[in-house]
From TrEMBL:
GO function term, MF aspect, one: cyclin binding
Function text: E3 ubiquitin-protein ligase which accepts ubiquitin from specific E2 ubiquitin-conjugating enzymes, and transfers it to substrates, generally promoting their degradation by the proteasome. Independently of its E3 ubiquitin-protein ligase activity, acts as an inhibitor of CPSF3 endonuclease activity by blocking CPSF3 active site.
InterPro entries: UBQ-conj_enz_E2-bd_prot
UniProt protein name: E3 ubiquitin-protein ligase E3D
Entry's transmembrane regions: none
Length: 389
């Protein structure tokens, strides 16, 4: 996507399934509006007394200028209009293993934050998804004999990897070096992809990266460790470790998780809770087919944080696939009543991450919200954000 100038604020959201687009054109000077707007199938051009801004759309995105409708000026935003649009289909989400287990490739587990090797050259013969919550009750309903799995935790064997909603279970018995927990392993109980760990509260089972001291997961038993997907990168051993900005990685992992869960279980509301069992965020998935194109020249005064420097570049132009979400923060007892209602609602799915990652995610959502045009930042009592995929 190329830009001739970056003085004007341009925001374009294309919905693939609806084949429609919302276009917002503003000016960096308060009260200033473009005098002339030209929309072509492949570009946008704004001519004002202060200068000219032209944005060329990415390949595969086409607008239908003759379908422009709903033209209005919104104070604080600029010019709003809607029109038909087409965008190429989003690439299919691919599992991190990408069928590597069938090819019997050796995989290496890395700490995403610093690149430290956690498990080297592990041959994964079986990569299996953990069953959903209440799977034991389903066995009772459908089997005419006693449940053979009753009160038996599901632990991976040496060359297995079990995948939950946002974590991996790996057997570390044969590894010479293992990430050490801060406390000794404790007794575990019934295991599933949601209700995957019930520990006695007296023990600390956090697994810490020996280089950067980031929490990678938790010990489940003397041989089994749970690694959070937001903290680990798994690659074929012949590939080099990729340097991926932290916030970009966290967004893409969480976006993929909620999209897959919404498709598999028809659930669209999520509580994001830390390993300390505290709820940090209430998340509501609106849609997963958005392509967001924006020029952020208007927001040069937004404070930057180190974890977000790759997300918020005020003078940049970007085009990205994204999921649109509503969210409410729950830190410092905010939204306690709503949080309690969601926790007791069977249609709400819980995702557990390290507490520091929950705070990172909340910061990412807040800054995404801050870069939206003011009229798009709230919906009812919720705040709006995009998670880039």
């Amino acid at each position: 996507m190329a830009a001739v100038a970056t003085e004007a604020r341009v925001f374009l959201e294309v919905r693939r399934r609806l084949q429609s687009a919302l276009l917002i054109l503003g000016d960096s000077k308060e009260g200033g509006l473009p005098m002339a707007v030209s929309v072509t199938p492949s570009s946008l051009r704004m001519q004002s007394p202060g200068g000219c801004t032209e944005l060329r759309l990415p390949a595969g995105v086409r607008l239908a200028p003759s379908t422009c409708r709903g033209l209005q000026h919104v104070p604080g935003d600029g010019l709003h209009l809607r029109l038909h649009a087409r965008a190429e289909s989003r690439p299919e989400l691919i599992s991190v293993f990408n069928q590597s287990s069938q090819d019997q490739e050796c995989c290496t587990f890395y700490c995403q934050s610093c690149g430290e090797v956690i498990i080297r050259d592990r041959m994964l013969l079986r990569v299996l998804p953990l069953p959903g919550d209440n799977w034991g009750a389903l066995v009772d309903e459908w089997c005419c004999h006693p449940d053979p799995f009753a009160n038996k935790p599901l632990h991976p064997r040496e060359n297995d990897c079990f995948t939950g909603d946002c974590f991996y279970l790996v057997n570390l018995k044969s590894d010479l070096w293992q990430p050490r927990p801060e406390g000794a392993p404790v007794e575990t109980h019934h295991l599933s992809s949601e209700n995957h760990l019930k520990l006695k509260p007296k023990a600390n089972t956090k697994v810490i990266c020996k280089r950067c001291k980031v929490m990678l997961g938790e010990t489940v038993s003397s041989e089994t460790t749970k690694f959070y997907m937001t903290e680990i990168i798994i690659l074929p051993s012949e590939r080099n470790f990729p340097i991926i900005p932290r916030s970009q990685f966290v967004q893409s992992v969480l976006a993929q998780c909620v999209v897959e869960l919404s498709s598999a279980r028809s659930t669209f509301r999520f509580t994001i809770q830390g390993h300390d069992d505290k709820v940090y965020i209430l998340l509501w998935l609106l849609n997963s087919d958005s392509l967001v194109i924006e020029s952020l020249g208007q927001y040069t005064n937004i404070k930057k944080f180190p974890v977000l420097e790759d997300v918020l570049k005020p003078d940049s132009n970007s085009a990205c696939n994204a999921v649109k979400v509503l969210y409410q923060p729950c830190i410092k007892s905010r939204n306690a009543e709503l949080s309690s209602l969601w926790e007791n609602d069977l249609s709400v799915h819980s995702l557990t991450l390290p507490s520091t990652t929950c705070l990172e995610l909340l910061l990412i959502l807040s800054k995404s919200n801050a870069t939206l045009p003011p009229s798009l930042r709230c919906m009812n009592s919720f705040q709006v954000a995009f998670l880039k995929m």
